[in-house]
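Re: zinc ion structure - here you go.
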Amino acid sequence: MTKYRNFPMVPRVVFGQGCFEQLGEILMPKRKNSEAPFIFLVDDVFEGHEITKRIPLIFNDQIIFISADEEPKTHQVDALVSQIKNGYTELPSGIIGIGGGTLLDLAKALALMLTNPGSSSEYQGWDLVKKPAIYHVGIPTISGTGAEVSRTTVLLGPEKKLGINSDFTPFDQVVLDPDLTHGVPKEQWFYTGMDCYIHCVESLNGTFLNAFSQSYGEKALELCKEVYLDSLEAAESRDKLMMASWHGGMSIAYSQVGVAHAMSYGLSYLLGVRHGIGNCLVFQYLEEFYPEGVALFHEMKEKHQIELPKGICAGLSDQDFDTMITVALSLEPLWENALGKEWRKTITPQKLRSIYEKI
Ligand code: NAD
Ligand code: ZN
């Protein structure tokens, strides 16, 4: 196995308040011909919204509104592939995702699956994708996940929740316009922003840490602290959280996440708990693993008067707990990053159950 990974990065990025205006001119040279549309996957929270009116549609371009109420699923990606293949005589010029991590992941997966045969569930894993995706653009409207820079698209499949990790997954272009995050509700702003904060804590405290990851992780952590603990002016806060998300994503690219993410995947798989809130629900009880990070998390939570839901795991059966524990333990690289090669000595099913029971 190669010792050092040769990591693909997003080749083009535009940043700045209002830069969404430039989308039309960015896409123009990428149009193959008038029969090959751009397909815009847009969070349905923007249906009828002014952002949608500013999408530069021409020829037979299409907007498909998608709800982010549930996390992306492999069958949903497969259905979108059929819809597009049946609706047009040729492949689209490109796919543009506009929304949070849910829409960004759907856009990445759709772009990959338009050129690769079979079901998206066959590609959940590492480096299973054989052919390059079609041109794809990510436009985040909420900051934190790092999905705009990452090499994965996380999908819930029939058997597992796992990303399609590949060199073809990252976006060809990202548009970072902090103004697009204007209307995010406070709770969601906190949960998705904490995803970024937790990426930093897990990366910076992991055994996989290296100067590459550290340099991005420290910057992202500093930005998160400014956003959630200082009293920044709103526009500055949006700018900084958007860049924190980017740097947090870059940090985990070359290291790994840890305990909160592994356990949050279990919650999400069994109960459909979404990524940001799931991470917060777990992370609050991880003082044993991340003492400083958890203390600061409580400080941020209090400052913004966020009440996390309680009793999520109350009333679950032994079998339910086992399902979550199996999903969490299957994410071996996350545990190894968090605790080192000997992680199995500390992490037992009983240990995980005792944490899940608090949630
Ligand atoms: P999301 O896309 O799930 O959206 C959360 C909520 O915010 C939704 O209700 C959405 O409609 C709303 N929203 C988004 N932008 C808004 C705006 N500007 N105004 C008002 N409402 C807005 O949120 P998320 O936390 O960004 O993404 C979570 C998803 O990201 C999960 O599916 C997770 O698996 C995935 N994820 C992917 C990666 C990756 O590297 N690919 C990393 C982390 C998480
Ligand atoms: Zn995350």
